[in-house]
Amino acid sequence: MFKKILIANRGEIAVRIHRTCREMGIATVAVHSEADATSLHVKLATESVCIGANAAKDSYLNIPRILSAAEVTDAEAIHPGYGFLAENAKFAEITGKLGFTFIGPKPEHIRIMGDKIEAIRTVKQYGIPTIPGSGGALSDVEEALEVAERIGYPVIVKAAAGGGGKGMKVAHSATALRNALHIAMSEAQANFGDNRVYLEKFLETPRHIEVQVLCDSHGNVSILGERDCSLQRRHQKIIEETPSPAVTDAQREKLFAAVANACSQMGYLGAGTFEFLYEKGEFYFIEMNTRLQVEHPVTEMVTGIDIVAEQIRVAAGLPLRYPLLSVTPRGHSIECRINAEDPDKFIPSPGKVTEYFAPGGPGVRVDSMIYPGYTVPPYYDATVGKLIVHGATREEAVARLKRALEEFVVNGEGIKTNIALHRKLVATNAFLKGDYNIHSLEHYLTTGRL
Fold first, then answer.
1. Less crowded by CB within 10 Å, the N or C end of the chain?
2. Of 440, 239, 444, 424, which Cα lies nearest the Cα of 339?
3. What is the CATH number of domain 207-447?
4. What is the third-level CATH fold of 132-201?
5. How far is CA 366 from CA 36, 298, 371, in A?
């Protein structure tokens, strides 16, 4: 087992990874920007190294500086968390060549799944259902129009190297498609340096369902259940839960078997998430995330499995401690992402935290990096924490979530959070019934009805 791990990330996920490392008796190295010198992950780590200025490109995305920090601190392995370099195949490859262990999938799998077109081609050959579409990058407008005519409108244009909703445009007609294609390609080039786009049938009211997998180098594949991530704004998830209130046991069994087969055929290693759109009883693959997900705690709550610990064990060459094809969940778990943003305008709202109270009690977990006196910097993602609850039933989990949100306090100078929005959402009849889809939150923000 590793003696020292460098955590190539910041914020709540860096704190979360550190805690598992310490429980495993592993020393940690925190890397940080100048802006994060007083961050909680820096305070908790065994040692820390400043790797650059405030901008992510000068620090958390600076591969040479991160690897230099690993070298000077004698770290044996690097955990990338999520975001930043977590799905950067080049980073994973260089890390291995320099003698460090990358705690994540093989570089080739990161590379394949990072290209949405190649990902779809890959899983399709293993029997994973996909959405009708172009099946590859579009060569020109005429091809796009031909595909749209064949599969029927509405359609959605997606960036091959995309993520976070960038380079995605919906079109309901040929005229709209021409405009959507131009805009999507421009956005894709600007955000990812790759203007390739592809076309898919646009599903009207799907849910977003994802499947958590863990695989080791001994041939074991474990499916840790599904998560429902349908409540999202501009393709950014806000509330996640497991199990999904919309999926039947028979559907789960069929989906999990297909995912397990794909993992085995690929020889996948580590943690990963297969993401699907689900509509009218059918699942359609959209992408695979080759990393730890933000919402992984809900899976941990219903399975009792520390996913980060399993990532570390697998990277060290050890077998999974839970080599079951499918782990049966215990109860129900829900997560709310707590963001430092205006709850009405959704613009970032960084500032100094002067008052902080995290809820507690049975079945309540808070993953966060904030504390009284901490200043949330304006340079990074707005997520400052996650509230996760667990109950024997969905009804009990919802009741605990309501209570925990009532207790949650984050006040300060200039800082606002979306806690008030969460309180409203979980009180709606649609949420209480589990009756929502990926468009429901946008509808709520427009009409006041989920």
1. N
2. 239
3. 3.30.470.20
4. Dna Ligase; domain 1 (3.30.1490)
5. 20, 11, 12
Query: What is the 8-class DSSP label of residue 136?
Result: S
Q: Residues 295-311, buried b or exposed e (16+ Cβ, 10 A)?
A: bbbbbbbbbebbbbbbb
Catalytic position from the list 291, 313, 365, 394: 291
Q: What is the DSSP string of 380-422?
A: S-SEEEEEEEEESSHHHHHHHHHHHHHH-EEEEES---SHHHH
The encoded tokens of residue 34 equal 């100048």
Q: CA-CA distance, 73 to 201, in Å (whole number)? A: 50
Environment class of 411 (CB within 10 Å of its CB; exposed 0-12, middle 13-18, buried 19+):
middle
Per-residue pLDDT tens for 288-312? 999 999 999 999 999 999 999 999 9
Catalytic site residue 291?
Answer: yes
pLDDT of residue 163: 72
The span from the CA of 378 to the CA of 10, in Å, is 14
Residue 345 banded pLDDT, cuts 50, 70, 90: confident
Q: What is the pLDDT of residues 182-223, one digit of tens each?
A: 999 999 999 999 999 999 999 999 999 999 999 999 999 999
- In this structure, the number of other CB atoms found within 10 A of the CB of residue 281 comes to 10
**Phi then psi for 6, rounded to 5 degrees?**
-90, 130
CA angle at residue 208 from 18 to 194, to 5 degrees? 75
Q: What is the pLDDT of residue 124?
A: 94
Peptide bond into 377 cis (omega under 30): no
Helix (H) / strand (E) element for 198: namely: strand 197-201
Q: What is the model's pLDDT at position 150?
A: 95
Dihedrals phi, psi of 338, to nearest 5 degrees = -100, 115
**Helices of type H across 193-333:** 249-266, 296-303, 307-315
Round to whole Å and give the CA distance between 248 and 287: 22
Amino acid making up residue 36:
D
- Answer whether residue 164 shows pLDDT above 80: no
User: 4-87 has which CATH code?
Assistant: 3.40.50.20
Domain ranges across the chain: 4-87, 132-201, 207-447
At residue 326, the pLDDT reads 73
For the beta carbon of residue 388, count every other beta carbon within 10 angstroms.
Answer: 25
Q: Tell me what pLDDT residue 162 has.
A: 74
Sheet with 47-52, edge to edge strand ranges: 47-52, 27-33, 4-7, 77-79, 101-102
Structure tokens belonging to residue 70: 């690993």
- pLDDT tens readout for residues 55-88: 999 999 999 999 999 999 999 999 999 999 999 9
